[in-house]
From TrEMBL:
It comes from Carboxylicivirga marina. Residues 319-421 form the UDP-glucose/GDP-mannose dehydrogenase C-terminal domain. Belongs to the UDP-glucose/GDP-mannose dehydrogenase family. Its EC number is 1.1.1.22. This is UDP-glucose 6-dehydrogenase. Gene3D superfamilies: Cytochrome c1, transmembrane anchor, C-terminal (1.20.5.100), NAD(P)-binding Rossmann-like Domain (3.40.50.720). Keywords: NAD, Oxidoreductase. It catalyses: UDP-alpha-D-glucose + 2 NAD(+) + H2O = UDP-alpha-D-glucuronate + 2 NADH + 3 H(+). Pfam families: UDPG_MGDP_dh (PF00984), UDPG_MGDP_dh_C (PF03720), UDPG_MGDP_dh_N (PF03721). Coiled coil: none annotated. Pathway: Nucleotide-sugar biosynthesis; UDP-alpha-D-glucuronate biosynthesis; UDP-alpha-D-glucuronate from UDP-alpha-D-glucose: step 1/1.
């Protein structure tokens, strides 16, 4: 079986490589020549654990190919996945120009039946637009050609993408014909042998599922952050509250960790986009508007605590551990660290930052407004306080003796609640975290 994937970004590259790993012949297409050249040599443009080796293996086995020619990739393909970017437009709605351009090209070059699958996160109604764009081009050619569209949203988490693709909780596929369902079923069968289902449904429901899933997860996080803020006021500990509510199986214990707010390419963008879709349909998603507001404020909560502790913040030096929006990725999109570092430097403070992999990406956003350290201890030299923003494993059990020697003050602002307040007390630290009593 042969398929094509258009767009070698995060979703496209992971999907293509994982499909190839099951023995399917996959051609990945991108307009970026340099990227395609590098990928053909097994050099991948993103940081994702295990992906480089998997790309290399499948390239060597001659079942994963990279090209800039969409036309070429279409030959003998039974399915083509559109996995190009859908950046947020000025008003928060997703920009579909890349998706629809790919659809038009498919219509121009398609020479046999295939399923055209939208894999990028796209607004409800996009598959319909893709279908119309392809049909339009086919008609311009004056020919008759049968094809189907399908919607197959992706639920990958960055940093765990391969595992998520290989062992999904579920696969959601929106289809309009049995023929398309059969092809999609054949493609995904190897991934559902562990008993998790392929959920076939109508196309608008599949498109909606992606937004509803991300919006629900974002809601859980903002809800917990809101509760955490109240915990601080009433003297409760959000970690205990989390354990207390998380053991109720109706609530569940995942995605209820309070922190410095959610970031990344999906939650902020998708929450905005679904709010926009609702507004365009004269409906206000009141809960999600609140989810977004709470998250915007939550990114500033750490700054508020720092300002309260250091009323004379100008000229103070802060060490920052972690820059990426979460561990195991170099992705800096919507990262709380950016908001926090910018706010501190605007107040006249100095920020010395270290991240195990995201420093290059961080430089694109923060430039030379912050100083970048050699390692996690280097940034502690003469620091007035340490701010923990991303819970990378290496930050979890630091060498307190070394810290004591390097830092000016023993003060920690923990934006992810990774340290044990009892231990901080024992080591003589002033310790601020999220939704838990301050240790002084
Ligand atoms: C998310 C979804 O999980 C995934 O299904 C979808 O396809 C894309 O969006 P990702 O953006 O990779 O994946 O990150 P995720 O691991 O879900 O974390 C998102 C953000 O939420 C991070 O900033 C993280 O720090 C934050 N988070 C997560 C919390 O603050 N608390 C939690 O309990 C969980």
């Amino acid at each position: 079986m042969k398929i094509s994937i258009v767009g070698t970004g995060y979703v496209g590259l992971v999907s293509g490589t994982c499909f190839a790993d099951t023995g399917i012949n996959v051609t990945c297409v991108d307009i970026d020549k340099e990227k395609i050249k590098k990928l053909s040599e097994g050099v991948i443009p993103i940081y994702e654990p295990g992906l480089d080796q998997m790309v290399l293996n499948n390239v060597e086995k001659d079942r994963l190919h990279f090209t800039t020619s969409l036309k070429e990739s279409l030959e003998h393909s039974e399915a083509i996945f559109i996995a190009v970017g859908t950046p947020p437009g000025e008003d928060g709605s997703a920009d579909l120009s890349h998706v629809l351009e790919v659809a038009r090209q498919i219509g121009r070059h398609m020479n046999h039946y295939m399923v055209v699958v939208t894999k990028s996160t796209v607004p409800i109604g996009t598959a319909k637009k893709v279908k119309a764009a392809i049909q339009d081009e086919i008609e311009k050619r004056g020919i008759d050609m049968d094809f189907d569209v399908a919607s197959n949203p992706e639920f990958l988490k960055e940093g765990n993408a391969i595992e998520d693709f290989l062992k999904p909780d579920r696969i959601v596929v929106g289809v309009e014909s049995e023929r398309a369902e059969k092809i999609m079923n054949r493609l995904y069968k190897p991934f559902v042998l562990n008993g998790h289902p392929i959920l076939f449904m109508d196309i608008p429901s599949a498109e909606m599922t992606k937004y509803a899933a991300n919006a629900m997860l974002a809601t859980k996080i903002s809800f917990m952050n809101d509760v955490a803020n109240l915990c601080e006021i009433v003297g409760a500990d959000v970690n205990n509250v989390r354990r207390g509510i998380g053991s109720d199986s109706r609530i569940g214990n995942k995605f209820i960790y309070a922190g410095a707010g959610y970031g990344g390419s999906c939650f902020p963008k998708d929450v905005k986009a679904i709010i926009k879709t609702a507004q365009l349909n004269n409906y206000n998603l009141r809960i999600l508007e609140a989810v977004e507001n709470v998250n915007d404020d939550q990114k500033k909560v750490v700054v508020k605590k720092i300002k309260a502790h250091f009323p004379d913040i100008k000229g103070k030096t802060f060490a920052m551990w972690g820059l990426s929006f979460k561990p195991h990725t170099d992705d800096m999109r919507e990262a709380p660290a950016v908001v926090i570092a910018k706010a501190l430097t605007e107040l006249g403070a100095k920020v010395k930052a270290y991240d195990p992999v995201a420093m290059d990406e961080a430089k694109h956003q923060l430039g030379d407004t912050v100083v970048y350290g050699e390692d996690q201890y280097d940034v502690l030299i003469d620091a007035d306080a340490l701010i923990l923003i991303t819970e990378w494993p290496e930050f979890r059990v630091p060498n307190y003796k070394v810290m004591d020697k390097l830092m000016k003050n023993k003060i920690v602002f923990d934006g992810r609640n990774i340290y044990d307040p009892e231990e901080m007390k024992e080591f003589g630290y002033t310790y601020y975290s999220i939704g838990r009593p301050v240790i002084k």
